[in-house]
Amino acid sequence: MSMSAFTRIHFQSLVVFAILFVAFSFTGCSKGSKEDREFEGIASSFIEDYFKAHPVSATWVGEHKYDGMIDALSDSARASELASLKSYLVRLKALDKTKLSLDNRVDDEILTNEVNREIFDLAELKNWQRNPLFYTQLLGNSIYMLIAREFAPADKRLDSAISRLKEFPRVVDEAMKNLSNPPRIHTETAIKQNRGTIALCNGDLRRFASQVPGKEKEFEEALKVGIDALNRFQTYLEKELYFQSNGDFRLGEELFRKKLSLTLQSNMQPEEIVDRAKDAVDRLHNEMFELALPLYKENHPGEVFDESSMEAKERVIKTVLDDISRDHPKPEELLAACREAYREAENFVREKDLIDLPDEPLEIIWAPEYSRGVAVAGLRSPGPLDKGMKSFYVVSPVPEEWTPKQVESYLREYNNYMIRVLTIHEAMPGHYVQLAYANRCPSLVRAVFSSGSFVEGWAVYTERMMLEEGFHGGDPKLWLQRKKFYLRAVINSILDTGIHMQGMSEYQAMKLMVEDGFQEESEASGKWRRACLTSTQLSTYFIGYNEVLDLRKEAKEKWGSSFQLKKFHEELLAHGSPPAKYLEAFIFGD
Q: 232 in a domain, yes or no?
């Protein structure tokens, strides 16, 4: 939201949210070969070291020993972490993989990929140097995670917040020392996010602290230290770094290829993804025309035109989508519309018995201000060690500074039909359900080293599956919106490679989204920003969706008459969030 419209709202440099929280639990802990026990020992040691180095990530996972600390980001800390990562990579490579159990063999490959990804991020991508959002997200999350969920008594969580506020000056000092020539768009977004962190501390954190008696003086002193540091960072971002931000937001071919391989855990090349996506765009245009034509004829009886003409097809689709988009909520009704869409989807899943639903609570809320500017909506799930904690389906409000034209464009994109599709994707039975299942997986490697392709692939798959099963009466308007939503996912993968590897301009990207994707300008503009701020994540939707569909097709072929949709869903989600290539062996025993 995983950034523009519809991800889990991870920021890429903090996708280390889900990084290396390996194995407090292994499927083969008490049994297995000597090599199994050796791998499990390496993983346990690694995760403990990682938690010490990344206490904010540890809080998210549910390891709360380090809740009063924030990551060290100095030159020496990074050098130490890089050396540690390389040493673990040597130990993992030395294992005899042929003697590992299937579970540990898969976990070993996933863990090795994550270690390589961390090395790549530290040594080559260098978000700590080129991306101020790395720091704004770290600071904001360090506080927000302590007050968002009741994983411990309020006084204990407030003590941790006080300790972290006192760490803010150090983090800001390290950020100001490390950052060098970032892209301008990253700094612009960081300026807004840092303001949001100041508002978080003065608002939600202060209200939280007011409920804990006896700590007023200590809290106010720490809050002043933290706010002073944030104000100093704000001045630096606005008055210094902004004018030094001349870096290229494009990764370039070498970095993009490496990062894409690590993200997808696949050898699929960017060119192949783009070719497949372009073919899918053509197919979707034809499918959307078939859905739109009867709706168009209802409103334009007697009109005669050449239905084989590409111009006519585009006009019919756009006209019908324009008609549908007029049915939208007011800005202040957006959250209520998402809640109603969730209730409708939940009732349908239960009625059709599509999958057993988790008991963990879900709350639908406005996105915290410090995290806005990258994603329109997303799902924030608890970490795998915070059992039974609440998930948040977060929705960004319409920005107050927008013009009436921008507001109308935004609401037309997120009309009442699109909100239903969005809510399926983010929550029911998309991310919320899948991530709750993942947190039950005996292997924490797979529970928290989540494959973005599988996570997003499941969410995109559920959009189609719900409509196939008759959600909202199989309304053709909803089907058309779902096709448009999927078309957006397909175009995402073209944008990802096009922008970061092929020099696609903003004009070309906007033209692709607005004309070929039938997107409103506000949505397309937001996606352009997201594609500039992130890389490789936008490719995961299209690839992951097709991988999940392939697994369903295989299940139907192998299970024959015994195939049941619920059985497939629960088997698919029973193994954490691994890349789809590993699920074939888990599900079918191949």
A: yes
